[in-house]
Request: fold
Amino acid sequence: MAADTKVEEVSTPKTIPIVSAMGRWTLEELSALRTSWQLWLSVCANWRKIEWRATIHQAHEVTNRSALLVAVVMAFTGAILIVQGGTQAQRIVGDLSPIGPAFLQLLIREFGPVITAFMIAARYGAGIAAEIGSMRVTEQIDALRLAGAPPVQYLVLPRIYGGLLGMLPIIVFGSVIAYYTGAVTAFYGFGVGWDTYFSTSFVKLADVAVGVAKSLTFGIAVPLMSCDAGLNARGGAAGVGQATTRAVIASSVLVLFLDLVVGTLGYLLLG
Amino acid sequence: MGRKEVISFADVYKSFGENHVLRGVSFEVLEGDVHFILGHSGAGKSVLIKQLVGLLAPDAGKIVFDGDDITTYKEKQFTDLRKRCQFVFQHSTLFDSRTVLENIAMPIRKRFGVEREEANEAAIEALTKVNAEKYVDVLPDELGHGLRKRIAIARAIALKPEVVLYDEPTTGLDPVNARRTDRLIRDLADRLKITSVVVSHDLISLRSIADRVTFLNGGFVAFEGRAMEFVRNEDPIIHQFVHHAHVGPN
Reply:
């Protein structure tokens, strides 16, 4: 009896804070999901109100201003994947001839869109959240509302359209870089000939369709989650920092989720 | 015949969690007045005026603007009200990436649906009223606090409002710029017949430009009346506030 009482005394204070913390976290995440959903509904309701100048500026941010980062990351990605893939292929099948076509198919369908979207989330998404978050905590968002410029139309839509316009070109750019650094790695590392590597025999129209579909959905997802994080920033500089972190995490998780959904639908519908 | 009430707060309550900021605030603002809302930091002064333009909603009570009960207005209904009632924020809130001219012209284009040229002309006219017309091509970051405040006021009056709400307009300004801002508020009220509601704890401003005063303390209205009556009031709480005494009821 005494032992039971002791166990209860020790375990109760530990269990309750964990449960309550989990409960609080769940409620906060559900609330965050709700605000993201509401923002998405608001975007859908106002989709015709395009601010062209701001949209072009945002597309420039996604493409030209992110090009160097994407080029560097994708160059390394291409080389690393060919080193890993080539080593495994050599060990297991001994035939390296499909390495180029298989890599191209994977790049178009999977790695190109996902890795580039991660880079855009880290650079462009973080920038959006910091900018809108700062505007939020310094009351500039309220000033916009009072000036008759709704934040969704004035801040969110140009970023979403900018993402939509810019994501596909930057993904194509990043994929081309990765493909070519892969080619150089395959040639010098494994002796794969250029003609063998640059074969497109594995690539089907379905792969391109899935790649484009992913690019477009990521182009919406990253700015949407980043704008949502910025618009919900609270407090001062610390709040802006938290919003920036949240933007990158939420965008990256949503990119992975959409990658799974679009990828699965692609295999089911297009093969 | 007395002047009409433009704004009326009736038994307004507002809490943030356990922090009960307003506990039944009632008072009126008369047309054409420069009406000060005074109180210690955290007394709910800014909360009160933000409720007028729909940036915050009251928990209970009634807010009337020019005869219309706006307490349960939705965002769309506030869009019309904001054409008549503008807000000058404490931190100016100019859009950093736009020039002074664009800061003022953009809201004009949005509000009145006019072409860029026409909006620019109206923006320059508003800047002239606050003696800032030579800064049209400058970015807000390059300006001092006093000028930024004047430009924020120009942005508000460019939309031709009947009422302007000023949130701590002299806070953070040096004494010279603070007095210039006071003069500007009074001049605009007199020349353009704008009703002005000024949230402040600047007693020099109060003495020089206020018509009427509402003093908030502990979530309640502790005083409502003419400015001179306020500064001469012998109530211990008001006396402490007016004379900056570090000892007293608060």
